[in-house]
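Model: You mentioned two targets. I'll fold them one after the other.
Researcher: Yes, keep them separate.
Model: Target one:
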Amino acid sequence: MVKQLRQVAGVERVKVHDFKKGIFAVTPRKGAKLSASAITEAVKRSGFTLQRIIVPGESTKESPRPPRASPAGAAPLPVEIEKLLAGPQDAFREGRFDDALRAARRAAQKKPDDATIQQFVSLAGFALGKFEDASTAAHAALHHGPHWKWQRLKGHYAKTAVYTAQLRALEKFVREQPASAEARFLLAYHYLMLGHSQAARSHLKRVAKQKPDDKLVRQLLEPAKQDGDNRQSFRNR
């Protein structure tokens, strides 16, 4: 990361305060103004997640943590939701899925009608193989807002391969437990996020037969509710 930061226009010196926590001090050249977006992009190119950049004269203990950059192509989250999900997102990216789920559920208690928080609850349950719980949260989320796109979804993972393995586990479960409408709905939901509209629709039709009174499923089957197929964005399946 240090190399990428040094290449940012206006950066004179980079000092590592805590490499594991991602805390770096950046000194600008005399008379230069550093661009926060340029620093963020440099960190992203290095493969790290930005935690804290310290300006000269600022204490490493007292400096505030900057807001996260949204994944490329994803709209920024409201500040309140970003704060509520900060802890859960950190735990999730570190692979601490149990901690992420507990923290996300606490956030959902504060904002039960927020689609983003409910989708994160679903994602944490999905990662743990708790497919029925994850399906329930996804169902609730879609009552309050649209599903995530792939850019938002992959932003929660340090490595795409981790998501791929979790998706494969869900697909295997659905094949072995075809009577589980909840797991099938969850799989359709993930296919929608990935842009696999036809595959999602196929599973939603099965769910509609299993649960004919589910109004949300019927709404998702309406042509206007379907997204275009953008499978090329999901590279490592």
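Model: Target two:
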Amino acid sequence: MTLRPVAVFRFSRAEGPGRFAHWLEANDRPYRLIALDLGEPVPDDPREFAGLGMMGGPMGANDDYPWRDPLAVLLRRAVDARVPVIGHCLGGQILSRALGGVVTRAPTTEIGWIDVEATDRAAADEWFGGRERMNVFQWHYDAFTLPAGAKRVLANAWNPNQACVIDDRHIGFQCHVEMTADLVEAWCDMAPGELPATSSPERQSRADILDGLDARIASLNALADGVYARWSRNLG
């Protein structure tokens, strides 16, 4: 039997699928990269795909890009058709907006390795391998509200909606779980002006972001693999 591919939407060349692609490949899940940054069109029918994945990007979910409204239509159709959706950072904001949530400037900008917490024991067990507190990567200026029917599953003191689940099959993250060491280093190189010289609890310097990077990435990869495995249960 030929498996339908997972559609992976890329908004910026610098923000590729990272660990998400590694997990799909390791688990023999075909995927199709849809490079919206290169002008590829948004497909019309989500049922062509086993699931939909959206990555991050430097733009805002409200910005008037040619793909913005067609992608929102596709996401609503996917939810109606029960085609699993996962969104990372910008992708999570886009999912929220498509389903009636609101994306605004975040109460606090978060950059670097910052803890988040599962909002209840069931969420910790179901999605995060029993973890109640997780150290994840952040780089965002905006935040999303919970659309109707969404359940908050991750939170922290800076921004309460770090991840939400819809219909027990779709998940949108404000944080980044898809990072690799190469991605972290590349982002630090591309946007040095966004990094403070001295770290604060919510914004870290380049030196602190890169300190112990291999161990941090190994822990994050283990978390992401569990999330992707849980999400994949409903892939067509």
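Researcher: Noted. Anything on target two?
Model: The chain has seven helices and nine strands.
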